[in-house]
Write a structure and sequence with these properties.
The structure is a single chain. This protein has 168 residues and is an alpha/beta fold. It has one domain. The chain is built from 5 helices and 7 strands, in the order E-E-E-H-E-H-E-H-E-H-E-H. The structure holds iron/sulfur cluster (SF4). The site of iron/sulfur cluster (SF4) has 12 residues, from helix 1. Iron/sulfur cluster binds at residues 19, 21-22, 26, 29, 31-32, 75-76, 107, 167-168.
C-alpha cells in the first residue's frame, strides 16, 4: 500500500492491475501508460493486462492509522475481467476494516450496481463509489455513490466537487 501525493486521499491500494478502455473518457488513461511502460516488470508482468496481486489484499489490515484509501488507482474495480470471487475478497477486507474509508472510482457504474445486487448486501458504510459521466466526464453517479458527497462538510477536499484529476 503506497502513500500518495493525491490530495483527496491518504493511500492507494492496488490488489488488481490492468483494465480495458470503455469510453471516450479513457482516451488519456494514465494507468495504461504507466503499466505499458513497465510491462514485463514485477508490478506489471502483462502490462495493462489483468494482474491479480493477492499478496496485497491484506495490506489494509496491517494499516493501523484510520486512512482514506483510494482503491485500484491503476485499474477499474468493476472491470468485467476481474473475477467476482476476487472482488469478494477485496470487499471482505473493506468490511473488516471499518477504521478506513475506501474510495472507488469506476467508469462502469452499472457494473457497480450489479455487483451490489449479486452480493445481496448493501455496500459497506466505509465504501464510497464514484463515477464520471461517460458523456461529459464531469459528474458523479447516483445512489451508493452519494457517499462521496458527504465530504463537502469535511476539512478535506471533496472529490466530487473538485472533479477527479485522474482517469478512472
Ligand atoms: S476505466 Fe479507467 S483504468 Fe480503465 S481504461 Fe478507462 S480510464 Fe483507464
Amino acid at each position: 500500500m503506497n502513500s500518495t501525493s493525491i490530495n483527496w486521499t491518504d493511500r492507494t491500494w492496488n490488489p488488481v492491475g490492468g483494465c480495458e478502455k470503455v469510453s471516450e473518457g479513457c482516451q488519456n488513461c494514465y494507468a495504461e501508460s504507466i503499466a505499458e511502460k513497465f510491462r514485463g516488470g514485477k508490478a506489471f508482468p502483462d502490462g495493462f493486462g489483468l494482474t491479480l496481486r493477492p499478496h496485497k489484499l491484506s495490506e489494509p489490515l496491517r494499516l493501523r492509522t484510520p486512512s482514506l484509501i483510494f482503491v485500484n488507482s491503476m485499474s477499474d474495480l468493476f472491470w468485467e475481467q476481474i473475477p467476482d470471487t476476487y472482488r469478494d475478497r477485496m470487499f471482505d477486507i473493506i468490511e473488516q476494516t471499518p477504521r478506513h474509508e475506501y474510495q472507488v472510482l469506476t467508469k462502469r457504474p452499472e457494473k457497480m450496481l450489479a455487483y451490489a445486487e449479486r452480493r445481496g448486501t448493501p455496500y459497506p458504510a466505509n465504501f464510497w463509489g464514484g463515477s464520471r459521466s461517460r458523456a461529459t466526464g464531469t459528474s458523479v453517479a447516483p445512489i451508493p455513490f452519494a457517499r462521496f458527497l458527504r465530504r463537502s462538510g469535511s476539512s478535506r477536499p471533496s472529490p466530487c466537487c473538485r472533479h477527479f484529476p485522474i482517469s478512472t
